[in-house]
Amino acid sequence: MTLSIIAAINRNRGLGFGNQLLYWLPNDLKRFKALTTGHTIIMGRKTFESLPKGALPNRRNIVLTSQKKTFEGTECFSSLQEALDACRKEEEVFIIGGASIYSEAMAFADRLYLTEVDDDQKPADVFFPEIKETDWKEKSRECHPKDEKHLYSYSFVDYERCRRQ
């Protein structure tokens, strides 16, 4: 299995505020959809509850929750390891949030698909884990200026894990 993490972060590694994304970037949403469609996505309960229309279509939606709840269109597990064990070995699985799930998954992840937003002013109350240069190698960077649909300049940056010793 290939474990990938996908997120949009600012220069301070800010992810969100008040259980909402910090930025509305249409091209980031298009990239998210293109990368995750047809794959399994794993998220925490709060991330799931923040989705405006519930389970994301054309993806296997897995929600991590300690509550004995079910959510329409999802499978629920109580731990990341339990969720990963339920995935096929040949598939790419995406971690889509929140912050605690990102932190736990960083040790196992093979790839990072990040949208790095050129801003450090918006307040954030949740943050992406540190990206250590000893663990990750930048594979590609695609820079975009701000425009009429994007209030901030941003870059799509893909990382791969450095070889494990």
TrEMBL record:
Annotated metabolic or biological route of this protein: Cofactor biosynthesis; tetrahydrofolate biosynthesis; 5,6,7,8-tetrahydrofolate from 7,8-dihydrofolate: step 1/1
One Pfam family linked to the record: DHFR_1
Stored CDD domains: DHFR
Gene Ontology terms for molecular function: dihydrofolate reductase activity
EC primary class: oxidoreductase
Domain of life of the source: Bacteria
Entry's EC annotation: 1.5.1.3
Function: Key enzyme in folate metabolism. Catalyzes an essential reaction for de novo glycine and purine synthesis, and for DNA precursor synthesis.
Protein name: Dihydrofolate reductase
Species in which this protein is naturally found: Bacteroides gallinaceum
